[in-house]
Amino acid sequence: MALAKLNKRTVDALAAPATGQAFLWDTEIKGFGVRVGATGTKTFVIQYMNEEGRVRRVKIGRFGVMTVEQARELAKIQLGKVASGEDPAEESRRVRKDLNVAEMCEWYLVEARAGRILGRKNRPIKDTSLNMDESRILTHIIPLMGKRLVRKLTIADVEAMQNDIATGQTRKPPSGGRGGRPTGGAGVAGRSLGTLQAILGHAKHKGLIAEHPTKGAKKLATKKRTRRLSIAEIELLGRAIGRAELGSENPVALAIVRTLLLTGYRREEAQALQRQWVNPMGGYVAFPDTKSDAQFRAIGPEAIKIVVAQPEIAGCPYVFPASNGEGPFTAVSDCLARLCRSAGIEGVTPHTLRHTFGSMAGELGFSELTIRAMLGHASQSVTQDYVHIDEAVKLAVSRTSDEIAKHLETGVRKAAKMKFAA
Fold it and tell me: Which positions make up the signal peptide (predicted)?
């Protein structure tokens, strides 16, 4: 049995075994140690014998997330419970048995934000994804399922939750403000079910629950979003933008709407665009993180004109800054909705502008592979990784952007003529 005073130096020096586990036990506190597996992960533990004479071992926390000093203090507390006749392992097991959905979701958010839960490609889950998870948890999952015991959940329970969300049971009444509100529907219902199922899967993987109680629950089918703007609608949107530029809309919001239509970027990508990412001479934006990880994305001259024309604010990294505070502008969806009402266009979201860009590229004769690269979709092959940096993609983006800009500006000019005639 390896013994040493546990401190950062001795724990750092503990080597991972080829197989199984290795332990290093503290010489000052009996029963306090650190465990290392073949992967190299080091976890603080306590080991003791309960009143029944059974050896128990309980995890304290992971080294790196927790310091040796913090683990030592927790070990003292837990071993103190043992001395008074308590059994921390049994207490932990009892807590897990009686865990409800709200408590499990809280555990997930804390662990995931600390980087201790891994998502796609075995990487910590991104903040943007966690923010969406948290929104679904607070808006839909906890109001409908929060008090339910996790161990008693059934497939029927979570599918009923999904149906309640789809039929508007968690819909919120209008608040009178300009922000969005939960409205339900099959899409958000399916995503909420997916979030809950993923949390249950992580809880099982981490040993919080013994089994995934609702494995096999089916998500509602949703219609693929195919809405795009026709050429006539692009001109109508341009006309609405032209009228709005006279003073009824925030110019930053209007610039983002134009950028979305001329680039096919995702709403979050355009809103949070930073100046240091943009290379006007090279015709690309170096996104450090997107839905498909870091990417170089082509940007056409018409969109570059909009980006470089935005006034700079000292100390602000964003191309499209918020009116208040230090963050980026985030209300482009509301602006787009008002523009579309003014133009008499229905069913348009920021994703519609992205789909319009891709569809226009298809009409101009560009291949599906090239269009996927233009839109920044996750690469599927070595060939596609190459296409992402091909000059042909820059040409395709420029031609598509020019074509959309032509029809957009036709509408803007018509708005100007109507103003002049009036």
Answer: none
Task: Give the strands of the sheet with 278-279, arranged side by side.
Answer: 278-279, 284-287, 295-298
Amino acid code (one letter) for 265: Y
Output 79 or 206, whichever has higher pLDDT.
79
Strand partners, 58: 46
Say which amino acid occupies 63.
Answer: F
Sign for the pseudo-dihedral over CA of 261, 266, 268, 270: negative
Which CATH number fits the domain that encloses residue 57?
3.30.160.390
Residues 272 and 308 in one domain: yes
Closest to 44 measured CA to CA, from 28, 27, 64, 15: 64
Please give the model's pTM, rounded to 2 decimal places.
0.61
pLDDT for 202 equals 93
Helix (H, G, I), strand (E, B) or coil at 78: helix
Q: Which two tokens stand for residue 104?
A: 């499990």
Structure tokens, 142: 């906890």
CA distance 296 to 282: 11
Count of Cβ atoms closer than 10 Å to residue 213 Cβ: 19
Q: Are 51 and 81 in contact (CB under 8 A)?
A: no
User: Is the residue at 145 inside a domain?
Assistant: yes
**pLDDT confidence bin for 279, thresholds 50/70/90:** very high
Alpha-carbon span 93 to 97, nearest angstrom: 6
**296: β partners:** 286
3-state secondary structure of 413: helix
